[in-house]
Amino acid sequence: MYGAIIIEPRGGEHIRVDCDYIVQLSDWTDEAPMTVFKKLKKQSDYFNFNAPTALEFFRDAAGLRFWF
């Protein structure tokens, strides 16, 4: 099951835009869910091989170009 999480300011939108874009991220593993859960409880970054920071993510995302 997939869905978007939409966060809106309590006082309403302050910036007028023509449209919104939704980015949906997904992941997949062949491991059993409880095995994944146990590994993450022991070490929260167990599956994070490259360990990018949030700043690096937003920098990389800013360089993307979308064509619709």
Structure description:
With 68 residues, the chain is mainly α. The protein is elongated.
Helix and strand layout, with pairings?
Blueprint: H1 33-42, H2 54-62
Structure summary:
With 68 residues, the protein is an all-alpha fold. The protein has helices spanning 33-42, 54-62.
Keywords:
68 residues, mainly alpha, 0% strand, elongated
List unreliable stretches of 5+ residues: none
Shape: elongated
Rg of Cα set: 17 Å
Largest sheet: none
Strand content: under 5%
N-to-C SSE series?
HH
Number of strands: 0
Which structural category do the helix and sheet elements fall into?
A: mainly alpha
What does the average pLDDT come to? 79
What percent of the residues sit in helical stretches (DSSP H or I)? 25-40%
Distance between the termini: 25 Å
Note the total helix count.
2
